[in-house]
Amino acid sequence: MSLNEQVVRAASSAHPRPLNTTFAYGTAGFRANADTLDSTMFRVGLLAALRSKKLAGQHIGVMVTASHNPEQDNGVKLVDPHGEMLHSSWEQYATLLANATSDDALVTTLHHVIQATGVDLAVKANVVYGHDTRPSCRSLVRAVVDGLAALDTDQVNAGLVTTPQLHYLVRCLNTQGSSDAYGEPSVEGYYHKLAAAYTTLATGRHLLPALTVDCANGVGAPKLKEFLKVVGTDLLPLVTVRDTTTVAGSLNKDCGADFVKTQQRAPRGVDLVPWQRYASFDGDADRIVFYYADAEGTFHLLDGDKIAGLVAGFILDLVRDAGLDDVKVGVVQTAYANGASTKYLTEVLGVPVTCVPTGVKHLHHAAESYDVGVYFEANGHGTVLFSPATLSLLSSPGPSSPTASQSAALSNLRALVDLINQTVGDALSDLLLVETILLHRQWSPAQWDSAYSDLPNRLVKVLVTDRTAFVTSDAERRLDRPEGVQARIDEAVRGVEGGRSFVRPSGTEDCVRVYAEANTRQAADGASLFLPLVITDPPRRAAGLTRT
Ligand code: G16
């Protein structure tokens, strides 16, 4: 079967590519101002169809969202059959298609991709798509659908969903009826799976005071409320704030996980009651961070690093109590992980830690190499993966005469497997995971926080004229280009006690990010404020840098 060029050309002509714009598949797909994305979305529809054909017609997911970015941006994340991010080998094709300069060039590029990947066009493609609450989603989803239709794709419209719900649906659709069936392929099925697991884990425990959840004024708000109707507030006392999705400009505005993490403060206008637990979702509910204030009103952040420590410690205890001595637990982090957290994980918990570049796709794959792989970015994006061997061990009957604590640990581990969304980081699933652990430990947020003290740190965005001029190595901990800048960074942190810093280009926003940490707040602030000056040093302007 050959490509119907006429159909593709006609469909493409309704989605012209903007002139003078170059698109790049970044950390989590394409992301830009929504006004520029119509042609990219159409072409993503084509790509998703090809990807499905390549994988014997399995469902591929397309999520229209720009997650933590401001409301005027939008973007798209592509989901592979097991619910993981698009395989990195296909990112180049996404970029090629998005940048084809005309309808004819698009057809030529499609032929190239089909040939390079060995796609059989006769295979029927299946794609499931969804979107977040951004006003621009309506027309951008239409563009995706036009792309899918141009390659005669069977489509499932998931509608308004969180990103992790879409990942869940993809995996369920591809595994239903098999021995690996992941669950009922519907949002209701997702709620029931999580609610059943949480009920098993939470029943009979002394309830903790209610958790307040900032929903970033995004899709997490209606979805969390739907979930509460299923699980009931008697087991999960919870209050939502920043939960409007109808006020223009409110998405992620002065609230949400990214705001709280980068500003290291509560959402604007939310007064923290001392010692109470708070959490913030991001715009598509795939990240979560927790926080609280002490008696003096000082803000304390419980970010992805703190979640990783809490979760790894809990799972280690369960694995030990269950007598599963051969099951090895490991943790995956990025360069953003606070140095104190890595020290805690390796020296106190005694677990191996792998460091990989930013982006869930990198963490997810690294976590697969452990029996139980806990991965969290400091920004709150993460989950836990149980290897197939561990899953089959857990589903086996276990010892013939187990002790009470062995039975309890095994049953808790089995429930955790269902509670945790193993396709991708999931704010709702992670919320339930943290609440479960705090319930079991009967810990206040301060007790959780006391595991270790974060090194003071600062994360700064710097606008540059060309972020592609910044090239990193060693899991983004070193900057290879522009030449000479790494030496200046080394110089800046030399002699700073506990000093560590790195610079990397963002893959979701048009900026570079500067991270610095040190033993004291003053030193961390000094380094982070100094570094933007280093990378915008006048001689560097030749490399396309400007000071902002
Ligand atoms: C996405 C990715 C995350 C990444 C974040 C920031 O999150 O899924 O893995 O940490 O972008 O990436 P960068 O520093 O390259 O801009 P989200 O929640 O925005 O989809």
Automatic annotation (TrEMBL):
<feature type="active site" description="Phosphoserine intermediate">
    <location>
        <position position="67"/>
    </location>
</feature>
<feature type="binding site">
    <location>
        <position position="513"/>
    </location>
    <ligand>
        <name>substrate</name>
    </ligand>
</feature>
<dbReference type="Pfam" id="PF21404">
    <property type="entry name" value="AMG1_III"/>
</dbReference>
<keyword id="KW-0597">Phosphoprotein</keyword>
<feature type="binding site" description="via phosphate group">
    <location>
        <position position="67"/>
    </location>
    <ligand>
        <name>Mg(2+)</name>
    </ligand>
</feature>
<feature type="binding site">
    <location>
        <position position="286"/>
    </location>
    <ligand>
        <name>Mg(2+)</name>
    </ligand>
</feature>
<feature type="domain" description="Alpha-D-phosphohexomutase alpha/beta/alpha">
    <location>
        <begin position="122"/>
        <end position="177"/>
    </location>
</feature>
<dbReference type="GO" id="GO:0004610">
    <property type="term" value="F:phosphoacetylglucosamine mutase activity"/>
</dbReference>
<dbReference type="Pfam" id="PF02878">
    <property type="entry name" value="PGM_PMM_I"/>
</dbReference>
<dbReference type="GO" id="GO:0006048">
    <property type="term" value="P:UDP-N-acetylglucosamine biosynthetic process"/>
</dbReference>
<dbReference type="GO" id="GO:0005975">
    <property type="term" value="P:carbohydrate metabolic process"/>
</dbReference>
<dbReference type="InterPro" id="IPR005843">
    <property type="entry name" value="A-D-PHexomutase_C"/>
</dbReference>
<keyword id="KW-0479">Metal-binding</keyword>
<comment type="similarity">
    <text>Belongs to the phosphohexose mutase family.</text>
</comment>
<feature type="domain" description="Alpha-D-phosphohexomutase alpha/beta/alpha">
    <location>
        <begin position="59"/>
        <end position="91"/>
    </location>
</feature>
<dbReference type="InterPro" id="IPR016055">
    <property type="entry name" value="A-D-PHexomutase_a/b/a-I/II/III"/>
</dbReference>
<dbReference type="InterPro" id="IPR049022">
    <property type="entry name" value="AMG1_III"/>
</dbReference>
<feature type="binding site">
    <location>
        <begin position="504"/>
        <end position="508"/>
    </location>
    <ligand>
        <name>substrate</name>
    </ligand>
</feature>
<keyword id="KW-0413">Isomerase</keyword>
<dbReference type="InterPro" id="IPR016657">
    <property type="entry name" value="PAGM"/>
</dbReference>
<dbReference type="Pfam" id="PF21405">
    <property type="entry name" value="AMG1_II"/>
</dbReference>
<feature type="binding site">
    <location>
        <position position="284"/>
    </location>
    <ligand>
        <name>Mg(2+)</name>
    </ligand>
</feature>
<dbReference type="Pfam" id="PF00408">
    <property type="entry name" value="PGM_PMM_IV"/>
</dbReference>
<dbReference type="InterPro" id="IPR016066">
    <property type="entry name" value="A-D-PHexomutase_CS"/>
</dbReference>
<dbReference type="GO" id="GO:0000287">
    <property type="term" value="F:magnesium ion binding"/>
</dbReference>
<feature type="binding site">
    <location>
        <position position="282"/>
    </location>
    <ligand>
        <name>Mg(2+)</name>
    </ligand>
</feature>
<dbReference type="InterPro" id="IPR036900">
    <property type="entry name" value="A-D-PHexomutase_C_sf"/>
</dbReference>
<feature type="binding site">
    <location>
        <begin position="377"/>
        <end position="379"/>
    </location>
    <ligand>
        <name>substrate</name>
    </ligand>
</feature>
<comment type="pathway">
    <text>Nucleotide-sugar biosynthesis; UDP-N-acetyl-alpha-D-glucosamine biosynthesis; N-acetyl-alpha-D-glucosamine 1-phosphate from alpha-D-glucosamine 6-phosphate (route I): step 2/2.</text>
</comment>
<dbReference type="InterPro" id="IPR005844">
    <property type="entry name" value="A-D-PHexomutase_a/b/a-I"/>
</dbReference>
<dbReference type="InterPro" id="IPR049023">
    <property type="entry name" value="AMG1_II"/>
</dbReference>
<keyword id="KW-0460">Magnesium</keyword>
<feature type="domain" description="Phosphoacetylglucosamine mutase AMG1">
    <location>
        <begin position="303"/>
        <end position="443"/>
    </location>
</feature>
<protein>
    <recommendedName>
        <fullName>Phosphoacetylglucosamine mutase</fullName>
        <ecNumber>5.4.2.3</ecNumber>
    </recommendedName>
</protein>
<feature type="domain" description="Phosphoacetylglucosamine mutase AMG1">
    <location>
        <begin position="191"/>
        <end position="289"/>
    </location>
</feature>
<keyword id="KW-0119">Carbohydrate metabolism</keyword>
<comment type="function">
    <text>Catalyzes the conversion of GlcNAc-6-P into GlcNAc-1-P during the synthesis of uridine diphosphate/UDP-GlcNAc, which is a biosynthetic precursor of chitin and also supplies the amino sugars for N-linked oligosaccharides of glycoproteins.</text>
</comment>
<feature type="domain" description="Alpha-D-phosphohexomutase C-terminal">
    <location>
        <begin position="459"/>
        <end position="524"/>
    </location>
</feature>
